[in-house]
Amino acid sequence: MDSILSTAQTWLTDFFDSETKKEIQNLIKNDTEELKERFYKDLEFGTGGMRGMMGVGTNRINKYTLGKNTQGLGNYLKRTYPTEEVKVVIAYDCRHNSDTLARTVSEILSANGIKVFLFSELRTTPELSFAVKHLNCHAGIVLTASHNPPEYNGYKVYWTDGGQIVPPQDGEIIAEINSLSFEDINFEANESLIKLIDKDVDEAFFKASVSKGSFGAKDKDNFKIVFTSLHGTSITAIPEVLKRAGYRNVTIIEEQAKPDGDFPTVKSPNPEEPEALSMAIKKAEEIGADMVVGTDPDSDRLGIAVRNLEGKIELLNGNQTMVLMTKFLLDKYKENGFNGNEFIATTIVSTPMMEQMAKAYNVECKTSLTGFKWIGKMIKDFPDSTFIGGGEESFGYMVGDFVRDKDAVTATLLACEIAADAKASGSSFYKNLIDAYVDFGFYKEKLISLTKKGISGAEEIKQMLVDFKENPVESVQGSKVIWIEDYNTSIAKNVLTGEEKPINLPKSNVLIYETEDGTRIAARPSGTEPKVKFYISTNAKLEKAEDYKSVNSHLDTKIDGILSELNL
Q1: pLDDT tens-digit series, residues 150-160
Q2: Is 526 labeled as catalytic in the residue annotation?
Q3: pTM of the entire predicted model
Q4: N or C: which terminus of the chain has fewer CB atoms within 10 Å of its end residue's CB?
Q5: Annotated catalytic residue: which of 106, 146, 350, 526?
């Protein structure tokens, strides 16, 4: 506690503003436990950048922690591009303080002689990614905490290609940041270097989204969509993109259309949670809509609900939407003829069905660590290859490479194109998914996410993963474990033969078990939330679509058995 108190007291110097000092003095005097939570560590970059609760302290999002990051980034950019006018574009979402923090970040960069393009109002993360290349910037920053609770905010950094920072840039930037003290932050803005942007970039982004996400779907006027932005930024883009693509029958959930950092109508603004889309699903049932689409606050994730075989609206998971979107794109490429250099992309905790589809279409499936920054890196690392599309189980998808991060704007349009075209042909999004299971195998996944907050929670998560590794699973529902993939050691081991293979990905705190029947169980801590996640993937042969219900029930029972075995 002495070291924490000492760190906190460094925030009582004249450099820090009076409100910050007053709050810290109050914590020192009245709430040592809260003081400990706020100063026991520094916030760090994770799979989705820097994210945390807002407030004073080194373990919180505030103008000083973000300021230090920004000063370090500015120093790094100027050193990397010493002969160029360095340019950075900045966007922000609907969260509390996002606009003021974005302004602070802009001022710090301008104080360091860097040209800043600042969106005049909130905009989506995919538009920020697009804007980096569109404006020929060296970097981009978006102020967002994605789908986290209202008390959070965050900061994601993008590089010249429009993708999030990856090695070696991330490590070099972090080293620069760690070399600084808070007193090194230059808050003295040069207003002449800050330019507000909006409609011109919007127009370019909308045109690109419509171009990349449209595939000539028929009978769009007969396709009903219910859309909710869940109080987030997608209201600035998705309705307009759908309109330009020819979708007139769109019902917007007005109660959730106004951006609001409190997210008053939902427990969590996360489309992965069925509750978040309950209002939209209710409306869809009332008006007989074909599809529900909901997005998270910064519009990189999308949840899709469609009518199932019984005609009821059912929320699909990220693996299901990813599979059908990718199959649709593969079919379109196949119609035009493959060139032989195409690839799709997925992540190590997403459905293995992506690999099976790639084999069937004779294209490569590249698999990365969790996080779209790694998919963006693939595109940069293989410039002579053509990226078709790809995603991850956490409700993210990317169509082509004009945006280099999860893109709920274009992915929403793509989903509507698939579903509208299917309906016009006498099928449906859901039936097409079942047909894909017949063609490539029926893969079904389940995610278990456990929240563990604070210092004790971080230790608990760490111990759970240690236990999962040191007490290895030997069989799952009667199927022997064959492979254990340890991404901390970069070794995959066959426990039956002793064979070892290197894992050619960066080290990560992930452990995956694979059994004889292809069942996979993965465990990893979240990079952006105080959670530990367990990913379960099962599969079975689906001979014909008529067998879907019975095989689906079998896989549900199997997953329930796995959860029981693992005490999850």
Answers
A1: 999 999 999 99
A2: no
A3: 0.95
A4: N
A5: 146
